[in-house]
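Researcher: Structure for this, please.
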Amino acid sequence: MTIAMPKPNAKIMARRAAIVAAMRAIVPGEGVVDAGVEMRVFETDALTAYRQMPLVVVLPETVSQVAAVLRYCHENEVPVVPRGAGTSLSGGSLPLEDGVLLVLSRFNRILEVDFDNRCAVVQPGVTNLGITREVEHAGFYYAPDPSSQIACSIGGNVAENSGGVHCLKYGLTANNLLGVEFVTIEGEVIRLGGKHLDSEGYDLLGLLTGSEGLLGVVTEVTVRILQKPETARAVLIGFPTSEQAGTCVAAIIARGIIPGGMEMMDAPAIRAAEDFVHAGYPLDVEALLIVELDGPGAEVDHLLSEVEGIARENGATTARVSQSDAERMTFWAGRKAAFPAVGRISPDYLCMDGTIPRKELPRVLAGMRALSQKHRLAVANVFHAGDGNLHPLILYDASKDDELQRAEDFGADILRLCVEVGGVLTGEHGVGIEKRDLMPEMFGEDDLKHQQRVKCAFDPRHLLNPGKMFPVLHRCAELGRLHVHKGQLPFPELPRF
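Model: Predicted structure, token format:
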């Protein structure tokens, strides 16, 4: 494997007994797990190719306990890895051998639902789907809906800026987040935002969203809830080729139609999902679009007709519109279960996450086929077609000597292709360790240094989730050095104080 984590600090490892004792003093009872066999469940997240035992696992129940743990770790220079439900697909919550794994799963209460202000205040351990279930009786829901929504926690969604099948129209976590409470590495509790709309000053809430646990530990989240649309209907559209489906996606958006969701699967994913869920997917097509339109009934009927027409113009061979809400949910059930469905046809798979301009879908899909031949591994494609967020599933067998390495190389080449066509390394899974060493493909050295300076402002000792996101971690003092060349300061025209 080419991805390496920081080597454990021998001095911290030697102090393990004292660190565990300190954690037990802060979080009594069953809140500290330090036995090897009991910690095994925390050794990996959903990027299961990488495993590493933590120094100790701590499960606090109160904000004061979180603050005390972080304060102790700051004072004693012990790394900390925050963790939610452990569903990260980028290795963002992979533990450190010399670090405290701070698990927020016990923060699992919905604190307030405010229908008048259309928001909910929840603890970070509440599941994504749990918010919708709490408010659906009143006709409301929480829009971001990752495929793992039954399990993933809202705190983890904030850390990774998660999306989902309906993010095309309703946005990612960042677009549905109103406020957070978080704790700094020094143990200071800070609130950003709230039930109101945008706050004045710097957009610190935007900065914290998607920061992958590098800046602070979220202990409370305020999210926007939406009223369910009057009507929602979905249409399954089959194509002879993936390129035709990709062209259709771009054509729908170009026509000014913004569906509630627009997802795409290729033939291997279609067959796996249908065999698993029996959603009624056509099996004689090479690509399938699921397009959902929502809003007033008359508008939905009109837009469905428009979408079907655009699909026929782009070579669609089949189109089936849902006739009931139950049928619409069945369409989505197959898509939501695509990842586990593919897991039934391959011993292992890597789920990649890159985002491209929609118009480049045909080119990138063709490129992935060529890369599949180059690396001699199959790939199944399931992705958020509407916003160009790709999720290629690279199939491999970890029991075979070189297949994991080939899968990693294949994935890296896919992400390089995404950047090459004007896209980015991640759409919603985050960088974690998976894409860490690919950051220079997208950012220059100065870009990365500026990002690390933000990290230094929040965490000058680099104790929060080290080894993630940045390919080379500079110490804050190194980033702050002033380079003098031949006696000349840089930018001599600027006033200095």
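Researcher: Any notable elements?
Model: The two ends are 49 Å apart (CA to CA). The longest helix spans residues 403-420.
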